C-alpha cells in the first residue's frame, strides 16, 4: 500500500509539474526603480484583473528591546487596526467594501506585508496601505483588544508541548541574543508594552533603505513605480536598527527537559546549519530533502513512522537566518517512546553523515525539487512572495532561471561531502512532555541542525 501511495503521489506531482513548469520558466522579472529611488521587482500578468504586492522590512522581532519581547508582533498586528483619520472599524470597513486584503506579520529578521486588490480598486488599496505604514493610530481600544488576543495565545502555548520545546530551544541556544526571545513575547513583556513603544518601533524599522518589494499583476512598470512611491515614498529614508550580532547556537550536545503533563511529547533537535550565501547551501538543501525534508519519501519518515510507528510525522529543515545558520529535526511521540525515537533519529543522522545519500536517492530528490519548484508560482501572491524572498537572500534577479540548474549540478560527491559537513556536529535537544520522556543519552556528535530552504 505504501508503495502504491508513493507511486500515485509521484504521478500527481509529475502532472502538476507538467502543467505549471512552463509558467515558472516563463516568469519575466522587471527591475523597477521609482523617481524616489525605491527598487521593486515586477512580474506583469495582464490576464488577471488584480495586483498582489508583497514587501519586507529588515528588522523584525530581532529589534525588540530585551524587556519588550513581542513588540514587533504586537505592532504588526495593529497596523490594520486604524490609521490616519480612520479608526479600526472604519479602516476594516474600507478594506472589506473593496475586497482589499492587507496584512502584516513579524518574523525574527523581517516585518512582512501583503496587499491584494482588484486592479480597479488599486488607488484605494494603495491609499489605505500608505496610511497603515505611515500613520498608524494605535488607539488604546485596539491595542488592548489585540494585546488580549496575544496574551490568550501565550497562555495556550504554556501547555502546548510543541511550543514549549521550541521556546526552550531558542532560549537555551541563544541566551542573551535577540534570537533567544520568542517572537510573540512573554506574558510579562507583552503586558508592559506601551503605545509609545509601538510608535517607536514603527518609526525605527519602517524605512525605505531596508525595504524589499515584489509586485505581480495587471500593471505596467510606470504604474508600478507610481504605486511604490505613493505607498512607501513618504517613509523615512533610513531605518534606525540595532545591530544583531552573528551567533552560533550554544549548549550543543545537551538535552533539556520541559515538564508538561501530556501524553505526547515533542522532540526538537537543533544545531549549526549552512548559510544561504554559502556555496554548499544547495547541496545541503538536497541532502536535507533526502534526510527529512521530503515528507513521505525521507529517510527519517521511513524509519521513524513507517518501520517503527513511533510518530505520525517527523521532519528536518534548514533555517538560514541573517545572523545564524541552523538545522532542525522535530517530531512528536508518546512519552514512553521518546528514548527510542531519539535513538532512531540520531542513527539516521549519523548514517547520512558517514555514508551520504545513494545515487538513486540523489536522482529522485533532484527530480522532485526541480519539478515541484513550479508550485511556488501558481498564484500571484506566491510569485510576489518569491520575488521578495529572492531579494532578501540576495540571490539575483535571474535566480528563478538558474535555480534548477544549481540543483541539477549537485553531484554524489558534493552531496556526500556536504552531508558530512552538515550532519557531523552536536545538537541541542529539547523535550517537552512528561519527565520520563527525557531518559535518552545526549545527542550523538554526528548530528547537525537542518535549515529551511527554498
Automatic annotation (TrEMBL):
Leader sequence residues: 1-26
Database matches in InterPro entries: Metalloenz_LuxS/M16, MPP/UQCRC_Complex, Pept_M16_N, Peptidase_M16_C
UniProt keyword Acyltransferase, yes or no: no
Region feature (Disordered): 434-454
Keyword Signal annotated: yes
Keywords: Signal
Gene3D superfamilies membership: Metalloenzyme, LuxS/M16 peptidase-like
Protein's UniProt name: Pitrilysin family protein
Organism of origin: Rhodoplanes tepidamans (Rhodoplanes cryptolactis)
